[in-house]
Amino acid sequence: MSDSIHFRDKALIPIWEKVQSGERLTLEDGVTLFGSQDILSIGKMAHTVQKARSGDAVYYVLNQKIEPTNICVLACKFCDFATKAGRPDAYEMTIHEILHKLTPDIHEVHITGGLHPDWEWEYYLEMLRQIKKNFPNIDIKAFTAVEVDFFAKKFKFSIEDVLIQLKEAGLRTMPGGGAEVFSERVRRLLFNNKIGAKTWFDVHKAAHKLGIPTNSTILYGHVETIEERVTHMLKLREAQDETGGFLTFIPLAFQPGDTGIKPPGQYTSAIEDLKMISVSRLMLDNFPHIKAYWVMLTEEVASIALNFGADDMDGTVGGEKIAHDAGAISPMTLAKDQIIRIIKDAGKIPVERDVYYNPLSLQSDKVIGKIPYLNSVPFYHHFEKRQFKIMPITPRRMGVLAEQGQIDVGLFSLADYLKQRDRLEMLPMCIATRDQVKSVMLFSNQGWKDLDGKTIGISDETATSVQLLRVLLEKKYGVKASLKRMHSGVNNFSEFDAVLLIGDEALRYNTVGLHGFELTYDLASEWYAWQQLPFVFAVWAVKQSMPDQQKAELKSIITTSLEKGENNFASISSLPAKRLGLKLGEAVEYLEGFNYRLGEREKQAIEVFEKLLSSLEVVKA
Ligand code: V47
Questions:
Q1: What is the pLDDT of residue 331?
Q2: Is the CB of 178 under 6 A from ligand 1?
Q3: Which of 114, 132, 266, 484 has its CA 20 to 30 A from that of 500?
């Protein structure tokens, strides 16, 4: 994070120093940020943090909002959407009507609605089942913590039971609504009968434990104080440290409508909205994404927010009612082309995603794929990107996008390079181990030979390590296990006899151990003990179709960047080490364990691996 900022408000300088050194911001820092009028410096700080996390990517999803009913047992003061049965504006949707609103081109349906006094439990389950059955490609993000708690009480289940049944019926993730502001004072004023912070967190943490990632929100711009906003963020940050299950944070700008709550100036100002986005990005240092929800911010403010800390634009959002009933002036839906244009105009890469934020397609040229792991930092820390844009992406997804021609250059997983070598040209740089790797780990309750017939959970991020695992199982140990892909983010590892993790996640668990698993195997050590060879996990490659001059330019940029990175392991790894909870010495030792240049032994290792791989049965992994 080397950008220099010219601070008009000098009170922000110590905060920036903290951010740069990876120190966490406090309540006081958050209050100082909100109190400052130096919006450009705040935005620049947040944008720098955003770029370090997300590169130039901005995510969107083709989605549809469904609010099955507005009949609600509650009557929160800020809500213009809810009503009572029998009133002229009350509505209830049948499953048939819900299905009718969906189309096969969308990837996510967002379902949330009123707490209906009479609907049966089976109705909600059937709603999800029918959506899954009729639209297998649509992932379901449904029911806020308020609804889940309501179901638990009404139908006499535990919160876990409700979530387990919803998951079985097709639920993938949960939206972040119902959080409002985690303050008892505000709760008593505005939503006295609704759940407070404790229950909201209980539900979200229970979901995370069951492998259901969730979103989070804050409703701002009404009666809350600045301290309450910052405290809200700190509570979320603490919970994220505990579970890691939050995907994104969504500041929801209050729409006064006919609620009777009259904040000064009616709508929040653009500056206040941008500050909210930026402060969220700075305070929530462990959140993957910050969402600029254009429905409440307006398209104009949301587009500016993409350079103020936000890397997530929600999506096309057909059919939103909660904000529009309260007078939101944004359109009801945005066309995909319009979202792409907004993101491109902000100088970013439009990334169409699925419900877990896996990239499905990119609408940009000149894209460099960046593996977001500590072992790749020596390549990227000093990278001079020039006319290229940076897309942080896990190895497996990089392979998929490269197949669609959407990545021009990158550090490719070896298996993907081998598969696509007619389209890609290898550069002489790589990530290879000498012996152990420490970040491609099998956590197991069985020794290798006893894994025969067992089920192994496989990280969603791997393309090569999963093949190395198969080679080791079948060729070294003569056993066959069933390999099951896990989704990215939180997982319920206890479902498996063993799990294969890679990258920073594996490195972290390698240090602290993975709960529930007694044995830990390093796949590169297993390979070395067998073949007496290094293992090449990734190689740099460019599109063959790229002009020669550009290839040469890229090779020189990567070489220069690596030379600088190699001479400075301590300084380039200090921030990521802090984030991973590693001591600086451990991070440096880890980086010293790699070979970053393709030598003869690395080439020989690739050949041996390729031969072993070709002798395995072809399966889709
Ligand atoms: O919890 C209600 C808010 C929320 C008003 O998870 C209002 O991806 C503004 O949570 N003015 C529901 N806001 C919406 C929500 C959401 C939206 C988009 C994406 C995601 C996600 C979640 O709407 C409620 C409440 O905080 N709300 N009334 C109003 N007058």
A1: 76
A2: yes
A3: 132
Beta carbons of 280 and 233 less than 8 angstroms apart: yes
CATH number, domain with residue 482: 3.40.190.10
Q: What domain count does the chain have? A: 3
Whether residues 527 and 561 share a domain: the answer is no
Q: How far is the CA of 251 from the centre of ligand 1 (A)?
A: 9
Give the model's confidence band at 2: pLDDT under 50 very low, under 70 low, under 90 confident, else very high.
Answer: very low
Beta pairing class for 519-522 and 594-597: unpaired
Would 203 be classed as within a structural domain? yes
The pair of structure tokens assigned to 220 is: 């701002």
By alpha-carbon position, which residue is closest to atom 8 of ligand 1? 175
Strands 482-485 and 367-370 come out as unpaired
CATH number for position 122: 3.20.20.70
User: Is the CB of residue 79 below 6 angstroms from any atom belonging to ligand 1?
Assistant: yes
Q: Which domain holds residue 223?
A: 55-360
Would the CB of 257 count as within 6 Å of ligand 1? yes
Lowest average pLDDT, out of 56-60, 383-387, 406-410, goes to 383-387
- pLDDT tens track for 500-536: 999 999 999 998 899 999 999 999 999 999 999 999 9
Check pocket membership of 539 for ligand 1, CB cut-off 6 A: no
- 474 within 8 A of 480, measured Cβ to Cβ: yes
Indicate whether 467 and 598 sit together in one domain: no
The atom number, within ligand 1, closest to the CA of 79 reads 28
